[in-house]
Structure formats: structure tokens, C-alpha cells
Amino acid sequence: MQNLNRRDFIGAAVGAVAALNAPHLFAAGKKAPSKSKVSTVRGNDLARMTLDSLEALGGMKTVVNEGETVFIKPNFVNAPWAKHNKCFATGECTKPEIILAVTEECLKAGARQVIIGDGSQLPKYEWKHLKTLDGKKDMVTEAKRLSSKYSGNIKLACLEVDSPGWVEVPSKCKQKKIAISDMVTKADRIITIPVAKTHSWAQLTLGLKNFIGITPLKRYAQLIDKTWWNRGSIDHSSPRAISQVYLDIVKAIKPDLSIVDFSVCLESNGPSVGQGGKTVDVKKRIGSWAVIASKDIMAADATAARIMSHDVKKMKQLTMGYAMGLGQIDERSIEIVGEKLEKLAMKWKPAQIKGHM
Predict the structure, then answer these.
(1) Angle made by CA atoms 114, 38, 213, in degrees to the nearest 5
(2) Bridge pairing between strands 153-158 and 113-118
(3) Tens of pLDDT, residues 207-251
(4) CB–CB of 345/339 below 8 Å?
(5) For residue 328, is it within any domain?
(6) Alpha carbon 243 to chain centroid distance?
(7) CATH number at residue 182
(8) Which of 159, 238, 239, 308 could, after both became Cys, cross-link 316 (CB 3.0–4.6 A)?
């Protein structure tokens, strides 16, 4: 293991993790803190919607500076089997349309390098099979095209095999520390782009939970049926236990931007169809797709939870993250820019939690 150097370990602030007993989050009469902005955009063109959501936050130049390295973390949980399993059409994985739009905006802002990376459930996979919903564009061809168009370059990374090293960050989980890819810790900017899903162990898998995928399979996973790896060494006994792991990761790396894919998603027992998840085409529920974005990862996840008709106060990852000072979750402290929340909210079948609460 090597020393963490993400912005000098974010000022060495990670060592002290705040107590998890949240104050009265929504106490009447308590003065609301400064508001976090969340942009909400509806439509049918995911690339265009992504650009509009970024523009509502001030544009990518307010996030990425010239010469910086950006790490983009999508949810590619079932991407290793993309040639056969239609993981984008089933709602299991973040859509390439959104990822590519964000990548190009980073390059336009002057990024020296954009790394698109995930750990997934196999050590590596074939990026050429990761295609847009219409099948017209694949990640490899588009990465080459954008790299030739701009001065910066794009790297597609399967973290298990492409990470030069792994860095340990402190945690209050059972292991006391968690290893994460140094491709993340060395980046100047970090962007999480999840697809909205419910999760049988974590309640929800959004921008926060997305960072479980930057941990090494070799250290935390077991081979299941000789076909895929499950990170079973990470405590899945309760939403609180598993949340502690990825919240401590978020505390360490401090993501700069979160963009949530509300196009084709997953409800019920996610994070995959094989585990009991059911495909949700948002367009069939509210008449269009949606993309939401925020520089506050907590505000983005809390807003996504409300869209998914989940009680924020009952989501362990949100109340715990708030107590750790990771961002805002109180609706009074979040400014919605764009489509009103009540027009986005829809019925969303929750997961049946497999661990204890």
C-alpha cells in the first residue's frame, strides 16, 4: 500500500470521522444551513439532458480546471457481460450517453486526462461491448474520437487490472481501513455517475454506494460459481454496516460532482436483475427520462431518494452521511433548479433488506 495523496489527503481531514448519532435532522425551528443546489432535467435525449443539468450548476468549468485529471465512476456492475446481458436496457448500468457527455465536457474544460473506471464483478471486461441504448456508439470508439478531438485524453480502466496501486483510507468498519484504487486518489477531480437503483443490502445504490466499486476484488471478494466475484468480505450484515464502508471512502476522496441517471433503472431487489431487481423505464412512469446533478453528493442522493419515494430519514446511508458532514439531506437545505420534485416523484418498489436493520 502507498500513501494517499488525493489533494494531500484532502488536508489530512480523513483521520477524524464524526460521530454517527445524527442530531435532530429536521427539528422544527432549527435554522436551515446554506442550501445545496440540485439540477433536475427531464427529456428524451440523455446527452442533451446531461449538458443542461451541468449548465444549471454553472457548467463543467466550475468543477474542472485546465490541466487536471478527472476520475469518472459509473456503475458498471454487470458490464463484463454487456455483450450478452443488455445491462443498459435492463437498468443495471449507467448509460454511456451520460458518461460520454460528461467526459466531453471535462475535456472542453481543459482536463489533461479523463479516466472512466470501475471495479465491477470481474477483473476486466471488453469496453467495445459497452454501447449506447440505440447501439450506435461504443465506449472504445468514442473514447478514441474524443481523445483525438481535444488536447486531453481518455483512459478506460478496469480497476482490478489497471490500477497501479491501492491506497488505504481509515474507516470505522470492522477492517478499520479500506483499500481503494490509486487511480482515484491521484485524480484532481472525482465525478460519480450512478444509475438509480434499490439495493437488497444498502436500501439504495446511488452516488454514495457507487464507490464500493473502487475497492479491489482480490482483497474483498470471493469467486462465486466460478463466474463472478462478490465483495463478501465487506460487511453486508446491515445497511448501517455496509454504509460505513463507502461513506468513509467518500469522506476520504470528497467527490466533486454527482450525476444520477434516471432513464432505465432498477427497483425491488437490486443491484441486478439476477438478484431480483426489476427494470424501471422512467419514461413509462412520468412521461420522460430525467437526469439530476449536484456538487453535493448527499443532496443528489437525498433528492434521488425522494424521487424514488423513499423516506430520507429512514435511509441509513443518508442519515449517517449527514452526521459525518458529507453534505445536505434536509429538503429545506436543498435548492431544486429545473423540474419540480413533485413532478419527478414516482412509485418505486423498495428492496427487501437481506441483513438486519
Answers:
(1) 45
(2) parallel
(3) 999 999 999 999 999 888 878 888 989 999 999 999 999 999 999
(4) no
(5) yes
(6) 14
(7) 3.40.50
(8) 239
The reported pTM is 0.92
Q: Helix (H, G, I), strand (E, B), or coil: what is residue 56?
A: helix
CA torsion through residues 5, 178, 71, 43, sign: negative
Only one residue has cell 482490478, namely 160
In Å, how far are 251, 283, 296, 335 from 203, measured between CA atoms?
20, 23, 20, 24
d(CA 320, CA 19): 9
Residue 215: C-alpha distances to residues 42, 104, 118, 122, 247 (Å): 33, 26, 9, 12, 13
Q: Give yes or no for a contact between 317 and 357, defined as CB atoms under 8 angstroms apart.
A: no
352 found inside a domain: no
**CA proximity to 120, closest of 165, 147, 156, 89:** 156
Q: Which residues contact 26 (CB under 8 A, 6 or more apart)?
A: 313, 330, 332
> Could you give the number of structural domains in the chain?
1
Does residue 21 lie within any of the structural domains? no
